[in-house]
Write a structure and sequence with these properties.
The chain is built from 13 helices and no strands. It is 71% helix and 0% strand. By secondary structure, it is mainly alpha-helical. The protein has a domain of 196 residues: MetI-like fold (Orthogonal Bundle), CATH 1.10.3720.10. Helix 2 packs across helix 13. The radius of gyration is 22 Å and the shape is elongated. It starts with a helix and ends in an 8-residue tail after the last helix. Pfam families: BPD_transp_1, OppC_N. It is a multi-pass membrane protein. It is found in: Cell membrane.
């Protein structure tokens, strides 16, 4: 039985132990984020006035408390939830924009393509991080605003990739056959072109997730993250830097999980890139 390209890619991916382990770790992170209210021993706003700024293990606080007596372990868990919510939401937003613009530009062509790609070039020339800062300033400091800001600021590279894939695939024999049989442009784009471009799109999306996590943390460091008291890794890291000498645990734990999460998603992206590389079977 002939294997599909996706099955071939999965077989190559699971032979990459680092990527497979990272994928499992990312899956666990998602489960933990969804289960944060059940796992966290305290709500992220609860304060223990008798145990302010204590170290790990003191007063029943696994990772200690901050200057307000809030449990660091609980806030790290809820911070994970914030980071993944923003990252996945922003990447879905960017992907939807990229698919619409890339498919229209690549398949329709003509003046529509020129107009769309001119707009894409303008966005590409504008620093995406600065654009996100402007949007958050205008929209306000909320998870929804961060999702929109980061997503709208990060679709350009994916749109260019989708357009390039469409330009390559629309000349293939199966697309010409579908066109000769009377299939509509929408059907051809969604049923014949998009599935065959899924590999590169998945790769860029997988790299976009850690980039969005980093962008959310960076905005929080600038004071443009979610409104307190909602936990954010960037906000916790900023607080930890200010208290580094007196309470190093405030920096250590959120920074460590932040770094591990970025590494795990990046390694998944590396694994997907190698898996969808057709030459992977020849190595």
């Amino acid at each position: 039985m002939t294997k599909s390209p996706l099955r071939h890619a999965w077989d190559r991916f699971r032979r990459n132990k680092l990527a497979l382990g990272s994928l499992i770790f990312c899956g666990l992170l998602i489960i933990v984020a969804l289960s944060a209210p059940l796992i966290a021993p305290f709500h992220y706003t609860d304060t223990d006035f008798d145990n302010k700024l204590v170290g790990p293990g003191v007063g029943g606080h696994l990772l200690g408390t901050d200057a307000l007596g809030r449990d660091v372990f609980s806030r790290v868990l809820y911070g994970l939830r914030t980071a993944l919510s923003v990252a996945f939401g922003a990447e879905v937003t960017a992907l939807v924009l990229a698919l619409i613009i890339g498919l229209l530009a690549g398949y329709v062509g003509g003046r529509l393509e020129q107009g769309l790609m001119a707009g894409t070039d303008v966005m590409y020339a504008f620093p995406s991080y600065l654009f996100a800062v402007v949007l958050v300033t205008v929209l306000g400091r909320s998870i929804f605003a961060l999702i929109l800001a980061i997503g709208i600021a990060s679709w350009v590279t994916q749109a260019r990739l989708v357009r390039a894939q469409v330009l390559t695939l629309k000349q293939r024999e199966y697309v010409e056959a579908a066109r000769s049989m009377g299939a509509s442009g929408f059907t051809i784009a969604v049923r014949y072109i998009l599935p065959n471009a899924i590999g590169p799109i998945l790769v860029t999306t997988s790299f976009g997730i850690p980039a969005a996590i980093g962008a959310e943390a960076g905005l929080a460091l600038l004071g443009l993250g979610v409104e307190p008291p909602t936990p954010s890794w960037g906000g916790m890291i900023s607080e930890g830097v200010r208290s580094l000498l007196s309470a190093p645990h405030l920096l250590l734990f959120p920074a460590a999980l932040f770094a591990l999460t970025l590494l795990a998603f990046t390694w998944v992206g590396d694994g997907l890139r190698d898996a969808f590389d057709a030459s992977g079977d020849q190595r």
